[in-house]
Design goal:
single chain; mainly alpha; two-stranded antiparallel sheet; 10 helices; 2 strands; 77% helix; globular
Length: 267
């Protein structure tokens, strides 16, 4: 029988609220916040220490399935999603996301944690420097799209994100406006999160984990409560974002990611 206590529920709800506010405020970063917070929560419980990071990443991806779907529908209503590019990138994304989960599952907890912390640090530095690739007057060829999709899916699944930090610059490089790049990236996040989650479920099952609250590496209760809470608080974050300057938002998010990254390194 599954066990759950009130403190655990409150922690998951708070994580969802925090992630939802941040997603609404900054537009990206749900997984970059959820993963380290879940890692900290799981480390205080009686779970297998060898699989804490795998559980955090898998659960983050499962949550992104729902947030990505919601975001994609909103962008689609505004006709901002370039579906032809989504379909062009998806084959590479699917392959990359699956093997990213398989690869990450073969890593030990410490190494996976270090990889995540390093990635988060690089994202924070990029935000701080506000670096975006110059737009190029060229179309995305099929081989380029498949290769790019594979890399995006592979890395995103390893660190438990929807891939926006890579997909948006990739699309912008190929002359896609930032607004449509963000919208198309949201749609690309759905296959990344879905296939990545299935990959972690499969590999976690192979490990024969004894945690009754999980399916493979996916933590069911964390998924449910965080997804519900983030869904409620994301609109509030979006409203606040309209009354704060873009520079202040970018610097705040960079500081947050720096803090989480250093915390992960120290752990």
């Amino acid at each position: 029988m599954l066990e759950l206590n009130l403190i655990e529920v409150l922690l998951y709800l708070a994580t969802g609220a925090f992630a939802g506010l941040a997603a609404g405020l900054f537009g990206v970063g749900g997984g970059l916040i959820i993963v380290p917070v879940l890692y900290a929560i799981f480390s205080k419980q009686s779970y297998d220490q060898q699989h804490l990071m795998h559980m955090a990443v898998a659960t983050s991806l499962a949550i992104i399935v729902f947030t990505s779907l919601s975001s994609t529908l909103a962008h689609h209503k505004k006709q901002a999603v370039i579906w032809s590019l989504v379909f062009l990138l998806t084959p590479g994304i699917i392959i990359g996301a699956w093997f990213g989960g398989v690869f990450a599952s073969a890593l030990d907890n410490k190494l996976l944690t270090t990889i995540f912390a390093l990635f988060e640090l690089l994202v924070a530095i990029n935000l701080l420097l506000k670096k975006q690739p110059a737009r190029q007057e060229t179309n995305i060829k099929k081989l380029t799209a498949t290769t790019g999709g594979f890399i995006i899916g592979f890395i995103s699944t390893i660190v438990g994100i929807g891939g926006g930090t890579m997909t948006v610059p990739f699309l912008h490089w190929f002359n896609v406006s930032m607004q449509k790049a963000v919208a198309t990236s949201a749609a690309c996040g759905l296959p990344i999160a879905l296939i990545g989650t299935l990959s972690y479920i499969y590999t976690g099952w192979e490990q024969q984990l004894s945690n009754p609250s999980s399916i493979g590496y996916l933590h069911l209760y964390a998924l449910f409560f965080i997804a519900c809470s983030s869904f409620v608080f994301a609109p509030l974050g979006a409203k606040v974002a309209h009354i704060i300057s873009e520079k202040a938002l970018r610097l705040s998010f960079s500081l947050l990611l720096f803090t989480l990254s250093i915390t992960m390194f120290l752990s």
